[in-house]
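$ fold --in a.seq
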Amino acid sequence: MSDVAISGRTAPQPPDLRASYLRDLQRRRLYSGLLLALFALLFVSGFMLADDRNAGGFWDGLPKVFDFPSELVAEAVEKAANLPGHFVRYFPSLLETINIAAASTLVGAILASVISMLATRGLARWPALIPLFRRIMDIMRAVPEVVIALVLIFVLGGGPVAAMIAIAFHTTGALGKLFSEVNENADLRPVEGLASVGSTWTQRMWFAVLPQVAPNYLSYGLMRFEINIRASAILGFVGSGGIGYDLRNAMSWGKGRYDEVAAIFILLLTTIVIVDQISSHYRNRLVRGV
């Protein structure tokens, strides 16, 4: 007879793991269902409020949602012979848009690399100021480019400079957040080795940290370049130059100029697809060695 039986006491029974798992699963499903119902309620109420503020015009205009694309395609097909000339005419504006995106990405990436290192534990030059630099990045990331561009246009006037500054400002905050996460995975032993021989903070970052994080930096920078091309085109609608400005002017004329609108759309779409493919190829080579 076992010791348990001799002592007259029964051994404690192991918990029913399956029953406990099912209870946790049901609880999670209940919470998920409640959150989904709350989200659906907020979505429907917000939509109804927006429709009322719009004088109930959403449902009346819903059948006409494809009118503009159909008119655009029809006129572009009718004037297809003019498209090559429009491509040549608007190509300089496309280059201006790409230049805005490239300059803002470069400036934003340089500033983001510095701020991210100042905001990373173990790498920061002034550890007490890490929360300050992180809040600066949060603010730069939270303000939309179009808001910054509108303020700069009021101060500087219209043109590509305002768009470049606005996009670079937002890019600094967005890339700074990504760069700081990359920095946290860097090996600190080279940093400590350089510190032991009396190197400066700049030398430690340049020779010990940057070689480790450079592939990820370049990968994120290329990804941000794709985003900034679209952003620079959008900012053209508020007078910041580039092909977006020409697109706004062409659309404002309405029928009769839709072939120009179609040409600009084709240029933008082609450019974004090409840049996306090239960027994806080089990002894979940088990060994975493929």
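$ fold --in b.seq
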Amino acid sequence: MELKEKLLESFFFICGISAIIILLAITLFIALTGLQFFQNVSLFEFFKPEWNPTIKPPKWGALALFAGTFYIAAIAMAISIPTGLMLAIYMSEVASPPVRENLKPVIESIAGIPTVVLGLFGIIFLAPYLSSLLNIPFALNALNAGILVGFLAIPTIASISEDVLGSIPNDFRHASEGLGATKWQTIVRVVLPAGMGGIFASIMLALGRVVGETMVVLMVAGMVRAFPKSILDPVSPVTATIASELPETVVGDLHYQGLFALGLVLFIITFIINLLADIVLERYKRRFGR
């Protein structure tokens, strides 16, 4: 029995170490390749608004690409935050246990929808609807992409926030109701403030998912590299630009390195977002002993 336990322990240890080594190797490769780009292109030029590596001389300004990512992320979070929080409040504070047990897996299953299927939905159904509703000729734009990506981010906020609200001791609720507060006053003035740290962490994790989404935005964002002036303009976000241009580059040339530089900056952004979310969530768990 001890031999089996040692073998299992060694197996899981090797799996864990292997995952860490692979992750570090990927990070190192992205960093080294991306940093080579900045030996030839200055940061000032990198943050100019025009990205067009195929013309002479090439333009390496990534500001329009990050603006497209920002537009989509802002729209997605404007949709997913209120929707996810309302679902979390309903499941934690209002729904009966049978409803909660059935509703939560349904919401979490949204995250398992293939993004290419969601992209097809955006092209076939959502784009014509937005075009007709807003009277615009071209509905493959930031708004279309933001709506779909926001839909994908809802399960992250709803599921984690529900866990957070459910972990708050019932003594908080009983004390509030004992002082004469209604159920909704208790939710708004006691439960939500007590769980704000964990809710913030869920929002940050959802933001990391939104910023890193590729397939949906590649299909429905419009892929125009001009600097967007509104959410109705087609955009070319960073992730979609990397996915569309990388197969056309020569390994090792400046265009290839430039795409890895985009990936490096995006990796740093998502890493910081997820790190902040993990720190906040861990502090929250220690606060309530969970």
